[in-house]
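Support request, priority: normal
Reporter: lab tech (M.K.)
Component: structure prediction queue

Hi team, I submitted a job for ABC transporter ATP-binding protein from Gordonia liuliyuniae yesterday, and the status page still shows it as pending. I've pasted the exact input below so you can check whether something in the sequence is tripping the parser. The sequence length should be 242 residues. Please let me know if I need to resubmit or if it's stuck on your end.
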Amino acid sequence: MSVLEALALDAGYRSDSPVVRGIDLAVEPGEIVALLGPNGAGKTTLLETFAGLLPRLDGRVVVDGVAVRSGDPRAAVRGGLVLVPDDRALFRGLSCEKNLRLAVGSARRSEGRARLDQALEWFPALAKRMKVDAGQVSGGEQQMLAISRALLQQPKALLIDELSMGLAPVIVESILPVLRSVAREQGTAMILVEQHVRLALEAADRAVVLVHGSIAFECSATELAADLPRLERAYLGESAAV
Ligand SMILES: Nc1ncnc2c1ncn2[C@@H]1O[C@H](COP(=O)(O)OP(=O)(O)OP(=O)(O)O)[C@@H](O)[C@H]1O
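Reply from support: The job had stalled in the queue. We restarted it manually and it finished. Here are the results:
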């Protein structure tokens, strides 16, 4: 059974003119999908609709066999769907440690400690930053914190918008293997929206290309990585850092 499914999904900001139309997409356990496409194609709109931040205009979203209520972000999280938005949504003014603790929620103290340790195993660079305000750490550390917060919620499906925005490729390359191993070990389904197509395809199993709000093209990440110029010419225009 797919972890995350969209069925005939229309999304956007006005019911008379959807930004995204007729999306049918299924992400399997442990699968990473790179969602690619030019600026304005509707990638963020689609992720925000999955996460309930935008009400659906039509269609269904199903997580682990259970339909997710439209426009209800708490229901989406309860259902196991967690979004890391492009602004990373950290609690600035609180330490990195407090940010992580809030993600662990009401877990018992010993279990909470173990889960915090897990975050530091994923991202050892955070260890010396735990007492520092989340707003004061580097962009890479903020992204590590945001992803740790999301993973500590033990999502069934994880959506990450603009993973590499503002980050050096070397930082992104330290984050992607963590996502790969969590997907493999925990069966988490993931969708990555990523401008750096090459990096995205290294981490992903499958690529889905969104153009003008519809899925234009879909294939294995390896197949697409072998033919990037075609992808660039056909779909991405000049904005993508292929
Ligand atoms: N709050 C909003 N209200 C109305 N229209 C919006 C809003 N946010 C985005 N749009 C429009 O929806 C369309 C899709 O935007 P979206 O941000 O989803 O694309 P994207 O593929 O994520 O692009 P980018 O790579 O630039 O982030 C664009 O035409 C955009 O102008």
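Residues 13, 19, 37, 39-45 surround adenosine-5'-triphosphate (CB under 6 Å). The chain is about 35% helix and 25% strand. Let us know if anything else looks off. Ticket resolved.
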